[in-house]
Write a structure and sequence with these properties.
Strand order of the largest sheet: 1-2-3-4-5-6-7-8
Number of strands: 8
Helix content: 40-55%
Bound molecules: 2-phosphoglycolic acid
Structural class: alpha/beta
Number of helices: 12
Order of helices and strands: EHEHEHEHHEHHHEHHEHEH
């Protein structure tokens, strides 16, 4: 499969930024610009804004996504939401393994793998994030680290289930910092990720898997990043909060 045959994917990660009113207003502003575009678009909102987002998205092609779930089916997990609740909110994608969750909320490789299993068992799709810290990059351990993250998360995931997995390469040093990985740096790691997937599942599946870049992607740098062979889209934080910036990225897909 050639790059052109992988449907590009642009996902917004609103993180913990918007009230319900702000969510509705932002969706209203971007919705027309996301119609009839070449890429799939998803918006990851905090669970409490899911219903508002769903209403604002009604009738559009834009998918609803959530930023996290718990792996347990149900029970005494104060503050958490289950896969069944995520499904009930009509989310289609769940972001898992985001570095902010790994660093601040105890989402170890083991927890990420359990969450991935729960989400796939529940029939939803996943944006699985991997990425290295600045010190890992400086020590030359980027690829080793990403390999370990992928191996842990994907062990036990079948080839059939991989159809519902999108990978996002997010170098931690580039997230929310304004420092973007150069297109070559990002392309190199995304190519490495495709190679790892090929090692696990074979070339055909790897060529069909979508790999996103995330980390200070914006209207200015999107086109160059997205033109890399192994980059099939973006996971957008800061720039997703500004309608015109986000739409520039969506348009950059072509
Ligand atoms: P950023 O965030 O675009 O603000 O760097 C990306 C992300 O964390 O998913």
């Amino acid at each position: 499969m050639r790059k052109e045959l992988r449907k590009p994917f642009i996902a917004a990660n609103y993180k913990m930024n918007l009230t319900r009113g702000e969510t509705a207003a932002l969706i209203k502003a971007i919705r027309p610009g996301c119609a009839f575009v070449a890429c799939e678009v998803a918006l990851a909102v905090p669970a409490i804004n899911a219903e508002t987002a769903l209403k604002a998205l009604k009738g559009s092609e834009i998918q609803l996504a959530l930023q996290n779930v718990h792996f347990a089916e149900k029970g005494a997990y104060t503050g958490e939401i289950s896969v069944a609740m995520a499904k009930d909110s009509e989310a289609t994608y769940i972001i898992l393994g985001h570095s902010e969750r790994r660093e601040m909320f105890g989402d170890t490789d083991e927890v990420v793998a359990k969450k991935l299993r729960a989400v796939l068992d529940g029939g939803l799709k996943v944006v699985l994030c991997v990425g290295e810290s600045l010190s890992q990059r400086e020590e030359g351990k980027t690829l080793e680290h990403i390999f370990a993250q992928l191996k842990s998360a994907l062990s036990g995931v079948t080839a059939k289930e991989m159809e519902r997995v999108v990978i996002a390469y997010e170098p931690i040093w580039a997230i929310g910092t304004g420092k973007t990985a150069s297109p070559e740096q990002a392309g190199e790691v995304c190519g490495f990720i495709r190679g790892v997937i090929s090692g696990f599942y074979g070339d055909i599946l790897a060529e069909g898997t979508r790999i996103l870049y995330g980390g200070s992607m914006n209207g200015q740098n999107a086109q160059e990043l997205l033109s890399q062979y192994d980059i099939d889209g973006g996971l957008i934080g800061s720039a997703s909060l500004k309608p015109e910036e986000f739409l520039k990225i969506v348009k950059a897909v072509g």
